[in-house]
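Subject: complex prediction, re-run

Hi both,

The earlier run crashed halfway through, so I resubmitted it with identical inputs.
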Amino acid sequence: MKVRVGINGYGTIGKRVASAVAAQDDMEVIGVTKTRPSYEAHLACAEGYPLYVAKPDQVAAFEKEGIKVEGTLEDLVGKVDIMVDATPGGVGEAYRELYERAGIKAIFQGGEDHGIAGVSFNAYANYKESWGAKFSRVVSCNTTGLVRTLYPLDKEIGVERVSATIVRRGADPSDNKGSALNSLEPSLKLPTHHGPDVQTIMPWINITTMAVKSPTTLMHLHCVIADLKKEVKESDVLAAWDDVSRVRLVSGKRGLKGTANIMELAKDLDRPRGDFMEIAVWQDGIKVVGKTLYYYQAVHQESDVVPENIDCIRSMMKMEPDASRSIKKTDTSLGIGE
Amino acid sequence: MKVRVGINGYGTIGKRVASAVAAQDDMEVIGVTKTRPSYEAHLACAEGYPLYVAKPDQVAAFEKEGIKVEGTLEDLVGKVDIMVDATPGGVGEAYRELYERAGIKAIFQGGEDHGIAGVSFNAYANYKESWGAKFSRVVSCNTTGLVRTLYPLDKEIGVERVSATIVRRGADPSDNKGSALNSLEPSLKLPTHHGPDVQTIMPWINITTMAVKSPTTLMHLHCVIADLKKEVKESDVLAAWDDVSRVRLVSGKRGLKGTANIMELAKDLDRPRGDFMEIAVWQDGIKVVGKTLYYYQAVHQESDVVPENIDCIRSMMKMEPDASRSIKKTDTSLGIGE
Amino acid sequence: MKVRVGINGYGTIGKRVASAVAAQDDMEVIGVTKTRPSYEAHLACAEGYPLYVAKPDQVAAFEKEGIKVEGTLEDLVGKVDIMVDATPGGVGEAYRELYERAGIKAIFQGGEDHGIAGVSFNAYANYKESWGAKFSRVVSCNTTGLVRTLYPLDKEIGVERVSATIVRRGADPSDNKGSALNSLEPSLKLPTHHGPDVQTIMPWINITTMAVKSPTTLMHLHCVIADLKKEVKESDVLAAWDDVSRVRLVSGKRGLKGTANIMELAKDLDRPRGDFMEIAVWQDGIKVVGKTLYYYQAVHQESDVVPENIDCIRSMMKMEPDASRSIKKTDTSLGIGE
Amino acid sequence: MKVRVGINGYGTIGKRVASAVAAQDDMEVIGVTKTRPSYEAHLACAEGYPLYVAKPDQVAAFEKEGIKVEGTLEDLVGKVDIMVDATPGGVGEAYRELYERAGIKAIFQGGEDHGIAGVSFNAYANYKESWGAKFSRVVSCNTTGLVRTLYPLDKEIGVERVSATIVRRGADPSDNKGSALNSLEPSLKLPTHHGPDVQTIMPWINITTMAVKSPTTLMHLHCVIADLKKEVKESDVLAAWDDVSRVRLVSGKRGLKGTANIMELAKDLDRPRGDFMEIAVWQDGIKVVGKTLYYYQAVHQESDVVPENIDCIRSMMKMEPDASRSIKKTDTSLGIGE
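This time it finished cleanly. Structure:
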C-alpha cells in the first residue's frame, strides 16, 4: 500500500512536491490545499489532485470559480499518513498542533525554525536522524545547497573553517512584488542565519556567512571559502563530490557562464518545470591555494529541496532504511543526474 | 517515407525546431549544425541529432571537446529534402545560394527580409501561399503574434486600422550580453518595421507600429488599438479567436498578471522547455469603446514561431493540403491548446 | 513679504518641492512634515527646514534619534499661507478638512482625484483656472507629460484623436519593494485612467491610453500617436514646441538612446538631485505620415511636477497674473531649459 | 601658476576628473579629448573645456556637428604639465610612449596594469610613493574601496588575513550594452585579480577575493571578512575609520538599506552628478566575533577614484608634501565628508 501524502500549501514548493510525490511508486498525493481560487487551483484540479481549502469560509470563493472543493484542511488531515507543510515561512508553526492532534506525521520547510520539529533533514548528511520521526524539517534551499557540498568535503577531506557569501536572488520569477529593482541590499544582522542553519545538520562545522540580495530571480549564488584540514589537489575536491548525484558540475568554458545559462540547461534537459534540483558547481571555478579551497555554486531556490522532501517522507515513514537507495529512487524518478 | 529535415543553426530557435520536428510522425531530423563546441553541442549529440559544422575548419575544435562531427553543412545539404535555416538574423541570406545549388528547399526566419524567399508564412493566414514553394520565410515572433490575433479579427469582424505598440524584451534569458540594465529605449525609426512585416502576410491591412525595448527577458508585450469596421461586443471579439488554438486567453484576475506569470503557467503545464507557443491575450484586458478595440497580448519570442516552421514544412513539401489539419497535427504533438 | 509655504510629506515629491520653494525669492519653506525619523528627516534638518510630525505620538521617536521637532501638522497649518500636500496617493483626501478648517490654501498631487479640489493644474494649459483658488491639484507626472506636448500641438495645429501607450517604470529608484523583477505587466482596466486625467486639463481632447509596467526605475516612456487636424511637416511639430521650455528635444544619434542616457544628461547638466524636469522628446523619433504624428517622450516621474507646484502656488496666491512670467521665473531658478 | 592638466578620454571617469580639476584652485583643465561627436562632446564645450580629438581624421565628424575642435591629442600633450589618461581599460598602454616623448607626466587608471607606471596610488595609504613620479596609476574603484577601509584597520589594529567577496554591478547606468539582464555570473579565475591589486598598494597584506557580477548598475558591494591580529570591540573598528573622510558610515536602520538608497542620499546631499565618492560602510552591518571582523561596504564605481586622481596630481607635481592636507583640500572642494 502506498503512503498517503497531503500537501498543505500548493505554491512554489508545494506544487513541486506534489509532482514529485506523484512520480513515486511508493507514495501518492491524497490532497492539496489552497487558500485562493487562482489559476494554480485550476491546474491542481487538472492534475487530478483533490483540492482542499485551509478554512471553511473559503469554499464559496472556489465554487464561484467553478472549482470543486473536496473539503477543508481539517478533513484532509484525517485521510493522510503524513503532511508536507509547504505553507509560507513562519505559518507552519500554527498548523503543528493540528497535525499532532490528528495523529499524523508532518514535514516542515526551511522557513520554520529547527525547534518546530527538533530534527532537521538532509538526505546525504543525516537521513537516519528522521527515521520514524513524528516531525522533521527539510532545511532551506540555501542550507541544503551548503550541506550538499560541505558534507562530502568534510567527510572525505576534513573542513576546518568555512566562510561563505550568499548572493541571494531578490524574488522568485513569478513574484509580483519583488525586491528593489536596481539595488544590492546586504543582510545586516551578522553573521547571517545560514551558518547556524547548516549546523542544525552538521553541528560540528565551523561556518559563518554573509548575504546580499540582488535584483535577479533565477538562483542563489554561493561564494565559498573553505579552509581544509590538509593540502589537497583540485582533483581530490572533485573526487569528494563524485558520488553525490545532487551536486552537478557545470563548465563556464562550455558556455554555462551564469545562473541564466544553468536554468537554460535545465530546460534543454527537459526537466519538469525547467527545474534544476542539483547544486551546480562551476568546475572551472574551483581553486585550491595551500589548504584553502575556493568554489562557486548555484542553488535553484524553487526546487533543490524537493527531492529532500521525498527522501524525508521515506525516512519518517520507515519505508527505506538505506539513504543511498532512497536517494537513487528519488533521483531516477525526477531525472536528477541525467 | 518521412520528410528529411536539416536545421542550420542549433540555437534558440533551431534547437526548438529540432525538438518539434522530432515530435512529428511525418518528418525527421537528419542533422543540425553548430559553429562552436558549447554545451548545446553536447546536448544535441545526447538527443541523438547528427551534428554538422558550418565550415570544415571547425571540426578540430569539436573533436578536441570529444564531440563527434558527422560532416559539414555542405554534406548536410546533400542529405535533406528541406533545410530550416535558423542562423542569426541576416546570415541566412548568405546560405540561400548553397541551398539553391543543392536543389533543396529552405525555410528562413523572420530576421531575414521578405525578399529572400518572396513569400512569407503564417499557418492560419496564408498556409497555401507556400504550397510547393522552394523557399519561404516564417515571419518573426512579433509579426506572428500580430497576425495570429489580427487575421481572425479582420476575417470575422473587419479591421479598419491598427495602431500597435510593442514593448520588447531586451534580450533572451540566456543572453550574456543584454540591453541596458535599467533603461527604456525607443525604436526611433518610425513607424517601426513590424507594420510592413505584418503586411507581407496581410498586404491589405492598415497597420502602424511603435516599439520600446525594456530590460526584461521573458516575452514581448503588445498593446493593440484596432478600429473595427463595425460596432461589436467584447464577446464577438472573443468569438473571433475561438477556433484559433494558437491564441490563448489568460486572466489577470486569476493571478496571471504579467509575462512572468504566463511563463510560470507554461512550466506548470509541463510544456517542453517551459515554452508558451500560443499568443497570450488577457481576457480581462479586452475593451471595446464604440468601434475601437483595445487589447494586450504577450509573445514568447523563443517559441511562438516553432509550430509555424512545422506547418511551413508541410505546405512547402506538399504533405498536407489542409491548413487546419496541419495545425491540429502540429498542436497535438506539441501540447498546444491543452 | 514672502508667501509662507508648508510641505506635508517630505518624500520623493515633497523634498523636491521644498528645494524648489527654497530656490524662489517670493516664497519660503515654513516647515515640512515627516512620519518617521529616517535619514531624510536628518537631511531636512540639515537643510534648515523646521520639522513637524504628522501626529503628536510620533514626537518621541524623533527625539530618540536626536531630531528636533518643531511641532505637529496641526501647528504647521497655523503658520502657513498654503500647504503643498505631498502625502502618498489617496492620503491627501484625509487632510483636506484640516486645511479647510485652518483657513489655508492647499495643493494636492496627482495621486488624488480631480474632485478633491475641483480644479486641476498645468502651468501652460490652464494657469488661470487656479487663480485665487482655495484648493487645486497638480496632475500626475504622466498627465503632466502628456499635457505638455499635446496642449501646444492642439493649439498650434489641432489634434483630432490621440492614442498613447505608457510604458511605466516599475518603481522609483529608492523603493525597496518594487514591482516584479523580470516581468511586463499590463494595466488591465481599459482604457487606462491617464486619458480622463488629461481631460481634467483639456476637457475637449479625444484621448485614450493603454499602459504597461516594466522593471525599470528611471522614467516613464510614452509612445504617442496623434491624428492631427491637418497635414503638417515634422518641422511644424517642432515649431509648436519651440516656446515650451518644459519640453526638451534629445537626440538618439548623439547617444541619448534611452531613459538611462537622459538621466545621465541631467547629471552632466548638474541639475539638482540629477532631476530632469522637462519632458524629453526624441527629435529623431518624430514622424508624420499623412495627418498622423508619431512621437516618443520620456517623463521623469520624480520631478516633472515640481515646477508645476511652484507655478500653482503663484496662481493660487495671486502672485503673478501672467503664466509665462511665472514659468520663466520658476525655470530660471531651477535650471530648466539650460 | 596653476598646474596645467589634460584629460585624455572624456567618458565616465574623464568627465568627472575634469569637473574635479576645475574645482581646485591650484590646477586647471587645459583640454579634454573625445573620439566621437556625441552629446558629451557638446557638453564639454558648454563647460568651456577646449576639445581635442584623439586622431586628426576625427576632426571632420566633429565639425559636421558644429563642435569646435582645438586640435589633436598630439597638440594637447604639448600644452600640459600632466595628463590624466582616462581612456578605456588597456588603451592607456598605447599612449604611454606619446606622453613620455612629450616629456609630460601621466596618471593611468585601474584598468591598466601596475607595470604601466611601476607605482600605484592611494591618497591615504601611499601618497608619498608617487612624489615627483613621471607616471603613476590610480588603482581601480574596487581596489580603492578595499584599501580605504583595510589600510586604517591594518594600521590601527592589525590585519592577519582578508577574504572578500565582491558583488559587482553588471554595467554602468548609461551603458547601452550591459551584462545579462537576469543572471548572476561568477568570476571563474580564482582568486580574482582584486587581491593582488590591493597588494600593489599594501604589498604585505594577506588578501584573497572572489567576485560575482549582478544585474544592477549603481554600486559594487563588498562583503569583507577580516581576521584581525587582536580581539577588539566594534567601537575600535569604528575608531580606526574615524579620521578617514573618504569612508562614510551609513545606517540601514535609518532607511539606507541598499545601494539604491545610498545613491539617493548622494542626490539629496546635492553632490555633483549625484556621485558618492566615499566608501559607504554599513554601521549596523559591522560585527566582530572573536578576532574576526565582518563588514559590508558599497563602492560607487563611477566616482570613488576621482579625488584620488586629484591627490595623485598633487603628489606627482610636488604641489603639497602633506597627504592629509591634499586630501582635505580635495574633499572640501568636492563636498566629501559633508
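Residues 141-156 of chain A form the longest helix (16 residues).

- K.
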